Amino acid sequence: MQVDPRAPELAMDDFVTMMNATRLCVLIHDAATKNILWANPAACEMLEWSMSELRPLKANDMSSSAQQYDRVIGRAWLQEAVEQGVSRIEWHYRTKSGRVIPTDALAIRVELTRQTAVMVQFRDIEHEQQIERDLRLTTSYVDALAHHTSTIALMLDSTGAVRFATDTAIAMLGADPNEALGPVTHHGRLRSNGSSLTWEELARQADPVTTVQLEVRADSAAAVWLEGSLERLQEADGDALLMILHDVSDRIHGEVRKERESRRENYLARYNAMGDMAMALAHELGQPLAAAGNFLAGVRTRAQSPAGADLSYGIDSAIQQIERASAVVTSVRSFVGHLEHIREEVDLNEIVEECLYFVRLRAAEHGVRIEVRTHPDPVPVRCERVLTGQVVLNLCFNAVDEMAGFAEQLRVVTISTSVADGSGRVTVDDGGHGIAQDPFEEAFTSKSGGSGIGLALSYRIITRQHGTIWAERRPSGGSRFGFTLPLVIGNSDSSATE
């Protein structure tokens, strides 16, 4: 060992002084007998024995009574240090008052001037073990939170990147648990107080906490709505934000359905008002137009002289225009009426037959073939004939328009009537793209050339007549639109023909 010649020399008493001052506990055992030769003040203080009391003690006098701290094991540990030079063990000492203290004990063989000894250095690790137990408990809590709870929790950094997520959150986001989750905005759309927000805007609102919604939209499923709070946590190494969420999809979807129903009711209310106005207009204009026609007819009678030829031509033209206007008014009265009109007993087969002329005209424009499969017997229902016919026309026109873009050999629309479960039924099948969702959920058509009334009006007409109307995807491709109306009592043939 090299010693700096400029360093002051230490006397033997200096080493004793330092050994007495250290807080590390030290016991000196004889290497052969394992008897205690000496103990420093720290060891005496911990074990509550004086130096004179310690010397005659054996391992069983100052160790835990547990089997793993038996005297034989203690001597073997010290002997290993004699033979190997060093040996380490966790040893539980017992104090004079009976308190058991867990220690980390290190035995080292020391060659003293007169004999070989074993120096045991030990320290109280009870506090460290308690910390370790607390840490294991905390770890188990965190593990339970991360893997065995339904809580949806995300820990994010200041940039919005997800640093930790519970298993439930990972599953809800549809993420891969083996890959980094990345920014939270990659998994859904952030909203707060009804408005869409960027991460930066939302993070500024977390002062220290704010409400948040996360809309997670899967490729082929309805959106999942999560709602909760975003809280800013002050960390020594920078800001962290905790997002706690719960699934409110049922509530949100219910609100959406309620809003759709409200829009449908508002739309149909406006349509009903429009019908009332049209009826009033037809009523108010009908009489003046008829009177004007009568007056002009009288003038024409008096204008038969040759000098009145030009006048007669003008009068005849005016009469033609009035008659045309009168025809328009008559048409309004025919097609815009209240469903409260007296309903009549009608054969659904007849309604379909009456519509076929117009359906085939529309189909011919697009090269679509119409196939008709009517029930072999009459299908008597009680309904408003004209309006029910309008529903048939609407469903058929939609099907024809759908098939217009397909190859000529595929352009087929099938119209069927049948009887089932006490109801008369009309279905219209096409082989098109098929519906993506229930079209009766929306009050307005998505067709670029549509009037916006279409299916919503059909829904109103059929349901107000105590019927049902629906749409579904066909297993073979395309869509089926249909409606049912209750059969007239006494004609409840339950056989069905598709």
| Strand order across the largest sheet | 7-6-12-11-10-8-9
Counting DSSP E segments of at least 2 residues, the number of strands comes to 19
**What is the arithmetic mean of pLDDT?**
81
Helicity, in percent?
Answer: 40-55%
CATH architecture of the largest domain: 2-Layer Sandwich
Instruction: Enumerate how many helices there are, as a single number.
Output: 12
Rg, alpha carbons: 48 Å
Q: Which homologous superfamily in CATH is the superfamily of the largest domain? A: Histidine kinase-like ATPase, C-terminal domain
Number of domains: 4
Return the CATH class of the largest domain.
Alpha Beta
Descriptive key words:
about 500 residues; Helix Hairpins; alpha+beta; Beta-Lactamase; 4 domains; seven-stranded antiparallel β-sheet; five-stranded antiparallel β-sheet
Describe, in plain words, how this protein is organized in 3D.
It is a single chain. The protein has 498 residues and is an alpha+beta fold. It has 4 domains: 12-124, 2-Layer Sandwich (Beta-Lactamase), CATH 3.30.450; 133-247, Beta-Lactamase (2-Layer Sandwich); 255-335, Helix Hairpins (Orthogonal Bundle), CATH 1.10.287.130; 344-486, 2-Layer Sandwich (Heat Shock Protein 90). It contains 12 helices and 19 strands. The strands form 4 sheets. The protein has a 7-stranded antiparallel beta sheet. Strand 11 and strand 12 form a beta hairpin. Helix 8 (249-302) runs antiparallel to helix 9, helix 10 runs parallel beside helix 11 and helix 11 (385-403) packs antiparallel against helix 12 (454-464). The protein is rod-shaped, with a radius of gyration of 48 Å. The termini are far apart. Mean pLDDT is 81; it is low at 337-342, 448-452 and 491-498.
